[in-house]
Amino acid sequence: MDRKSILNLIYNKKLCEKLCSTRFPWGWKPKDIIQEEEKFLVKSNDEPFYHNYHTFESNHFLEHSRNAYNVIYKNYLDKIDFLDKKYTTPSLSIALNKLRSKADDEKLNKYPDDINTMQNFILSNKIEYKVTTCNYKILGFTSKKEIKYNIFMGLANPDETDLKSQHPTKQIINVLYLSNNFYDILEWERDLLEINPEWQVSNINNILL
């Protein structure tokens, strides 16, 4: 099986029942439902973010995430296969491809070419000890570099369990984007065990369950 077939087999998740791609070809949910999810995210963000792996500059992140958000939107309009991109996780890539294949082109053609984000805010910022998936990792969750590292550590320290190989760790940030046309919440994540981790989007408006 080729890479995309494997990813579709493993990461094809169920979509939220509240979305409606007919009424909302982009965003997929009405604003009031997204606002309810926003309240939940803010309420659940009780713990401050502390981590020793990487520094996090929120202003720099917010500025660059606006551009990435716009790229994802434009690629959706252009029917780009998201499994060919690194900035969306496998599950979200598959979901966006499915939604776009069923979308009304006539309605989408009335949408603006760009999202001119007026403001964006971080709603939540947390750590999870879970694997970070990627469209270009082996089976979506491990790279050749990680395999070599774990083999080396196992040979070098057969009687000791390395913490890095034992606990996959990722940072997850939810960001609200406000524009004249849209009200969207994007969930971003990055693998904190990588030296220079890249951000990718793992959910938009909680369309993935």
Verbal overview:
With 209 residues, the chain is of the alpha+beta class. The chain has one domain. The chain contains 7 helices and 4 strands; from the N terminus they run H-H-H-H-H-E-H-H-E-E-E. The protein has helices at residues 3-11, 31-44, 58-77, 90-102, 105-108, 144-156, 163-166; strands at 119-128, 170-178, 183-191, 200-204. A 4-stranded antiparallel β-sheet has the order 1-2-3-4, with helices on both faces. The longest helix has 20 residues, at 58-77.
In short:
The chain is of the alpha+beta class.
Mean pLDDT: 87
Q: Tell me how many strands there are.
A: 4
Q: Report strand %.
A: 15-25%
Helix content estimate: 25-40%
The span between the termini is 26 Å
Number of domains: 1
Class inferred from helices and paired strands: alpha+beta
Keywords:
7 helices; 209 residues; 16% strand; single chain
List strands and helices in order, with pairings.
Layout: H1 3-11, H2 31-44, H3 58-77, H4 90-102, H5 105-108, E1 119-128, H6 144-156, H7 163-166, E2 170-178, E3 183-191, E4 200-204
Antiparallel strand pairs: 1-2, 2-3, 3-4
